[in-house]
């Protein structure tokens, strides 16, 4: 056996063991899927702060008549769009995902709900700003994205529902955020735009309900009184969370975390949750707690501690494998001679 053949064999063995090991360690672990036939529409009204719903009569009526469950969603720092989309769609805190700036034009390093849905043959669709598409580039069967200003988001959403009837649809209008940046979150223009969006939401939700969709309405962040949302204050980190579902009997707490939305979406769609989802599902959290207990060395320690420990253990196992492979190959070489 020549040195080149030997090196090639060693390379294949190392590659094989690396892939196998990493596939079954911390990084890829998900809960089991429990298929439902639910259709889900997630509406992210960009930049909608909590008190804006006082100017949204349709939303107010849903809450009053108990047709919708209402909670207050608390966003982590930073309260910016890209980090918000990540938290809503991966359930992973920004400290761990690393997506902490709007200028990070990267695909999500963490498996998100759209990708999990695709893996389980769920028809996905996006109707919104291209940053969401950038984060999850191969995760939407149907898409209508805009690059500068939206204006046709709701119209596009209607046509996507009529033409494709996706199982998981994201609708993401931007006008409230644009007005917030131009005039401020306490301006009359901002509250007027919230009222306009409320009208569009009414038409969209009526259509969605006719098609038996479960609907979540929420936002990535709020707005400061004088506009912008980079200061971490209640006006920027508190946003509404509305859940409209005919076949769901749950009572979510008044305050939820933004990272609770992704595992909740998973339960609605009947797809697995990932261990990166460090929030809690509002529907059923037993599976993820069980999985965390099984795979996390110390439940009370911070997530990054457990992640680092997992990486260390993986590397030690990898090293042992390499040594064993080396001796096996030496043995084979001797036998061939
Ligand atoms: Zn935003």
Automatic annotation (TrEMBL):
Superkingdom of the source species: Bacteria
Lineage: Bacteria, Bacillati, Bacillota, Clostridia, Eubacteriales
InterPro entries cross-referenced by the UniProt entry: Alkaline_phosphatase_core_sf (IPR017850), Phosphodiest/P_Trfase (IPR002591)
Annotated protein name in UniProt: Uncharacterized protein
Gene3D superfamilies from the UniProt entry: Alkaline Phosphatase, subunit A
Entry keyword set: Membrane, Transmembrane, Transmembrane helix
Organism field: Thermobrachium celere DSM 8682
Segments crossing the lipid bilayer: 309-332
One MF term in the entry's GO annotations: hydrolase activity
């Amino acid at each position: 056996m020549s040195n080149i053949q030997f090196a090639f064999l060693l390379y294949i063995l190392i590659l094989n063991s690396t892939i196998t090991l990493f596939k079954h360690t911390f990084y890829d672990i998900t809960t089991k899927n429990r298929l439902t036939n639910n259709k889900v529409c997630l509406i992210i009204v960009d930049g909608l702060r909590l008190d804006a719903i006082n100017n949204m009569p349709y939303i107010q009526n849903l809450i009053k008549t108990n047709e919708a469950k209402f909670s207050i969603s608390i966003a982590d720092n930073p309260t910016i769009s890209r980090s918000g989309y990540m938290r809503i769609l991966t359930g992973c805190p920004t400290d761990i995902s690393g997506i902490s700036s709007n200028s990070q034009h990267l695909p999500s390093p963490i498996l998100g709900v759209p990708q999990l849905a695709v893996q389980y043959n769920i028809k996905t669709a996006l109707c919104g700003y291209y940053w969401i598409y950038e984060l999850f580039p191969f995760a939407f069967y149907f898409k209508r994205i805009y690059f500068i200003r939206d204006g046709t988001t709701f119209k596009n959403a209607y046509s996507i529902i009529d033409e494709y009837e996706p199982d998981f649809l994201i609708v993401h209008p931007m006008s409230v955020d644009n007005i917030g940046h131009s005039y401020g979150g306490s301006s009359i223009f901002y509250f007027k735009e919230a009222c306009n969006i409320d009208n569009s939401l009414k038409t969209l939700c009526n259509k969605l309900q006719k098609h038996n969709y479960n609907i979540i309405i929420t936002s990535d962040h709020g707005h400061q009184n004088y506009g912008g949302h980079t200061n971490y204050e209640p006006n920027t980190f508190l946003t509404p969370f509305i859940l409209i579902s005919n076949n769901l009997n749950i009572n979510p707490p008044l305050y939820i975390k933004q990272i609770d939305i992704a595992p909740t979406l998973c339960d609605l769609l009947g797809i697995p949750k990932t261990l990166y989802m460090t929030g809690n599902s509002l529907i059923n959290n037993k599976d993820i707690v069980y999985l965390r207990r099984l795979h996390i060395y110390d439940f009370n320690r911070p997530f990054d501690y457990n992640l680092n420990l997992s990486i260390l253990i993986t590397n030690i196992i990898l090293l042992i494998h390499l040594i064993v492979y080396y001796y096996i190959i030496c043995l084979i070489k001797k036998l061939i001679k």
